[in-house]
Design brief:
single chain; 4 helices; 4-stranded mixed beta sheet; alpha+beta; globular; 4 strands; about 120 residues
């Protein structure tokens, strides 16, 4: 009975649910690196800062040997780069996105194949 109550209580917490979603992401062999660029102070990078604070640890816990590079620079547009096999890169703007939306973009990149 306590377990059901705990699940219902935690199940309504969006942070916990996004943690479970992130924990489910496992990068395949085609994806070689994620690189996140952001500004330390700009409003357009707030969602990226939240994403790093909330999602970086579960992401690395599930993919301990996978390189996730975080680059901070003043007045930089927040961007996510995914590098695949043979040096193919995809670039996604993260400007004004929320942490959950960034998580969705990471999931899409992890599931996609390079073109």
């Amino acid at each position: 009975m306590y377990l059901i109550f705990l699940f219902l209580y935690i199940g309504n917490d969006s942070t916990f649910m996004s943690y479970l979603k992130m924990a489910a992401i496992k990068f395949g062999p085609q994806l070689k690196e994620l690189r996140i660029l952001l500004c330390q102070t700009s409003k357009s990078s707030q969602g990226v800062r939240d994403f790093i604070e909330q999602q970086y640890v579960p992401l690395k816990r599930n993919n301990p040997n996978f390189p996730v590079l975080i680059r901070e620079c003043s007045d930089t547009e927040p961007v996510l780069y995914a590098r695949y096999e043979l040096g193919v890169e995809r670039r996604i703007s993260l400007q004004n996105l929320k942490s959950e939306e960034i998580l969705q973009r990471v999931q899409e990149l992890a599931a996609s194949k390079p073109k």
